[in-house]
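Weekly puzzle thread! Below is a chain. First person to post its structure in token form gets bragging rights.
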Amino acid sequence: MKILVPVKRVIDYNAKPRLKPDGSGVDLSNVKMSLNPFDEIAVEEAVRLKEKGVAAEVIVLSVGPAKAVEVLRTALAMGADRAIHVQSDEAVEPLAVAKILKAVAGEEQPGLIILGKQAIDDDCNQTGQMLAGLMGRPQGTFASQVVVDGDSVLVTREIDGGLETVKLALPAIVTTDLRLNEPRYASLPNIMKAKSKPLATRTPADLGVDVTPRLATVKVAEPPVRGAGIKVADADALAAKLKDMGVA
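Winning reply:
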């Protein structure tokens, strides 16, 4: 079985994003970029399934500019076998990404597609669900455990009331949550080996996908500065203050 893992290049979670002066978006110049943390978890889970003998090959795919190759090499160093880079210098919306993934999945025929539940740059949490809808495949979202059992996969997912386990017939789509695993660090020998692993470059046009944006960003702004708090002497003063504010 093949496992396909889409990954995204995002601002490093330790970096503080800056807005462009005109408010049109986030300034990405001179900012550290890295592999989306949720996608890193997806890569780790796919590699673990391969190590267990469940999968024969792990393929990673990224849609983005030329520099997206960096995160693909990171995923290869973690243990993926080969990579596909769908190069686009324009921002690609989740629906277009899902269409690209569907096209690639049609060629590769993976038994399992594992994605991070969301990217930390836009927090859309849409691509996996859209892909499942486009392909008509069963999906398990917010996975905290994934167990492949013959021709099905058991996905334990986190919900408001606790945990829920769903059984999906393969081929299926899974999106990962933070508690699924702890991603490994790529060793120096594996980083060197990753440089020689196959990496194919495609374009959305090669796959017959139109990535023309459907949405327009009107404005991006910093959240309002939080006002100073108010100290009260005791619970009675707090209740009175809340009543004056119309809260209670």
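Puzzle host: Confirmed. Bonus trivia for everyone else. The mean pLDDT is 92.
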